[in-house]
Amino acid sequence: MVNKISSKSRFILYLSTSSLIVTLHCATAFAKPSLHQKKDQQFNQLIEKRDDTPDQDTALNNPEADPDIDPSGELLLGGVNKYLDKYGIQLGLSWLTETAGVINGGKKKGADYAHQVAFSIDMDWEKIIGWKGFSTHAMILNLAGRNASTDYVGDSQIQAQEIYGGGYARFFHMNYVYGLQKLWDDKVEIRFGRDSVGNNFALSPFSCQFMLIATCGQPRSVQSQQGFSPWPGTVWGAKILYNFTSNAYVQVGAYESSPWGTGKGGPAGFDWGVKAATGAFVPVEVGYTSNFGKSHLNGYIHVGAGLDTSRFQTWSSQATGSGKKDNRAQYWVMMGQMIHRNDQIKDHGLYVIANWGHDSPTTSSFKDLYNIGVIDKGFWHARPYDQFGLMMTYYTVPRGLSRAQEYQINNGMVSGANGIFNGLLNGAPGVQSNSLLFEANYGISVYRGVMIMPVFEYFHNVAATKSTYTDAAVLGFRTNVVF
Predict the structure, then answer these.
(1) Which residues in 290-321 are b (16+ Cβ under 10 Å) and which e?
(2) pLDDT of 291-322, one tens digit each?
(3) End-to-end CA distance of the chain
(4) Are 248 and 229 a contacting pair, CB within 8 Å?
(5) What torsion do the CA atoms of 104, 105, 107, 110 make, to the nearest 10 degrees?
(6) Domain locations in the chain?
(7) Which numeric CATH code is attached to 7-482?
(8) pLDDT (tens digit, 9 = 90+) per residue, 64-112?
């Protein structure tokens, strides 16, 4: 499928990661106890830096906003971390579950459960030994469960449970280990180690508050390709971020590009060799954080692109055996803007969210993907930490892929019955074109660090096909416990 890494690409890859080896001997961690909590934390840090709303967790004209029922808090480790913070150490532990079941349409009725247990540790070396601006970060995962989209929905493109990521069912998986150096009064950040592109680029603070993988953690079209490594796969890489104003930044990175299975750390996450690498992925992104008016209506916009230097067989060559190959690139625009503030808590308001992702059509599983939706936090005075979300996604697959699938069928290269085929490119059950997806959810704050979320999902044109499975209606249930 792809060539082994060229000498030029290998030089780029080693140049971007050669400084990591010494640092990683002392690397431990930074982050909230799960990737989803980490994204919320990153956005809160942006707001704290660029929003002068009061810091206290008391809602405007709402005395019922008790921090003891804030689901973004910590259930058990709050006191421990408060004590450890003066020594430069922070611990994190979380348990995220997602259950999804088809109630109508799709492949058949039934439900699956999946979970992630995440443990992280943050070490601030400025507090520990006086190394100004330097910290190290790590996370380990336990992953278990089954994929409802494969078993019941019949969709090879979009997972009903975003937590069901690549290479699942791992008792122990080393997720990331990296170092972070801040310079020039935090204007510059240098991040390097075993990391994911998706932890740094095309990152939305709200994307993983939906259960469909169409949105979490990047637009699905962007994260589905080899070079743009998403959670839980990690590769060697580095990035440099420069805050050229208090509201705007630019960042560029270089990461190993390797396939799932043979690369990205292997099953346990400790295979750190680069023998599986086929090239380097080089992303660049600019971003702006907004803060409008007396109500401090905060938001963000990210615009970026990435190029994978690997050479991939085109869809037509995979069907015909012509041997033609091409590079792969991705582009993205992501925004979220609060249009109404519900109370004084920093992120409580009505947000409009919109994303676009585009991929090289000759070699990618997607062509264009669009998300548009809303999240409303703190809208109910009596339950200030509840939230609801609505998200609609539309995507298209490349015409070259559809033609290659038609070629396979017309030339007897695949088997099938009743319009459902085995062996088609992209793992599809039929010739693909486009699909429309919908999700509605309601997050219920149970207690400090605990949120439960009923979810409804709808798949129109399952797996981007029009003549295989009927539209699928899915009910789901999500729990997130931050210990």
Answers:
(1) bbeeebbbbbbbbbbbbbbbbbbbbbbbbbee
(2) 999 899 999 999 999 999 999 999 999 999 99
(3) 43
(4) no
(5) 0
(6) 7-482
(7) 2.40.160.180
(8) 677 788 898 999 999 999 999 999 999 999 999 999 999 999 999 999 9
